[in-house]
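Re: your question from the hallway

Yes, I did run it. Sequences:
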Amino acid sequence: MEEVADLESQQVDKMETLTRTPIMHKSAEEPRYKLIAEDIVASYNGIEAVKKVNMKFREKAVTALIGPSGCGKTTFLRCLNRMHELTKSATVTGKVLLDGQDLYSNREDAIIHRRKIGMVFQKPNPFPTMSIYDNVAAGLKLNGVKDKKIMDQIVQGCLEMVYLWDEVKHDLKKPGMSLSGGQQQRLCIARALAIQPEVLLMDEPASALDPIATQKIEEMINELKKEYTIIIVTHNMQQAVRVSDYTGFMYLGDLVEFGETKQIFENPRNEITAKYVQGQFG
Amino acid sequence: MITLEQRAEYRKYFRNNFTRRLITDRIVKGIVFGCVVLAIVPLGSILLEIIRNGVPVLSVEFLTAPPGAVGSADPGGIGPAIQGTLLLIGMSSLIGVPVGVLGGIFLSEYGNNKYGQMIRFFNDVMAEFPTIVVGLFAFAVIVLTLGYFSILAGMFALSVIMLPIITRTTEESLKLVPVTYREAGYALGIKRSVVIFRILLTSAKSGLITGIMLSVARVAGETAPLIFTILGNDGFFSGFNQPMDALPLRIYRLANLPYDSATAQGWGGALILILIILTLNVGVRYLFLRKRGGGGRLRITTGG
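Structure:
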């Protein structure tokens, strides 16, 4: 009896596979989404800065968020790791799914999830009382890593990933603040990488930097995207073109258009997007 | 748009009298310097007077011996008073510093509500309390309950005086830590408590220590609350439930005695009190605030 049933079910499976083939084929090509934002509404003092934004971020790709000042892109980015709600009188509703798990379902989990989502801020903000080494190791030490050997390995590895190791390897005990602005920003990226995140949120990481430091950071992003899912907010449209695979254009708290970077910049479907990428306003 | 002509026109409205500016500048500078001198004169003259009168009585005996009998040929020393003051500072810090710092953390990090505002208000009121009232309070609560004057009562009174100062300065210096450091900490997935204790407190260290030293200096010089609590004594420490001497008390007694040797010893006591506070201040600052290259405790072995 069981054998028959098995056989039957196998046949059914086969049948289903056959009939579903085109769909299966399509879903195999369907990319994996690392981070999914659903119906995100974020507000300050009751004023909505982000209005029901839905967005899916592909794994191991760079997604750029562009838009004029005050359009809510930074706010939206800060919702993705529950940073927004730390601001006084700020509220968020909606879901952020990281590998299918909702960050907003549980407050305690948010802390664990934040370790999977690194964040780099607009201005370099190394911890002022810590050395270069301690800055990179901060996320490890303060999250309970005690093994010195592992820590040394991670610190060196992360500093190498941001191309800072050669510049600072003899000065690891110097204060993080003693570095130049561009170096500080790369230090902060190394610090974010040290906690072994899977997603990296970057809030205009190069806006305070000179062209050479900016170039270094962009090269680094191109290298990092092989391993990480990167979401970058930028005011610089050339930068978006250079580093990103996908681009979302936000305007007045709405996600107006979202697609492949090439399409957004060369063939935008929306009129406002077209005007913005052509530099007619912004 | 503003045209070129308009710009030339607008410029005329600015003050263009540079000689007058220079003179004003000089006058303001003069006033500022004058005020500095005015502020320094009393401070300097007090210090000078204390050093001039205090240094001659300094001797090993003066620093270590207990006071002699009143009016006798051998005036003794202020040993017990020094011991008492150091003990009191240490013991009241033991309560005042942790409670004050934690209170400050509460106000700064969790006190953005009615409850916090209430505490902040009463804390400020407490900081303004006349210290003699605090002394009476300690007298009523500790001395009358236990039935004897004791160093414990003194410790209680002084820590009550310390608390609001430390709480307030801790709160203020924590609030000065830029929000970006907090965010950087949270972004690394660090727990709130760890962010507060390991990132915010270390960033606010210098303000914190200033507050603590300020309160230590304040209580080290308090006399009024001590009269009601530790009472004063001629002997060295003999138990926490015993009366004890302290420098301000001793200075007060010595200055009231009608003998020249006692008055001279009073000056010496004042000098020692100032030196103790100064040494503590400099010592604590050196210990906690010296530049370690930002955390030199850590070693890293490069390349093997």
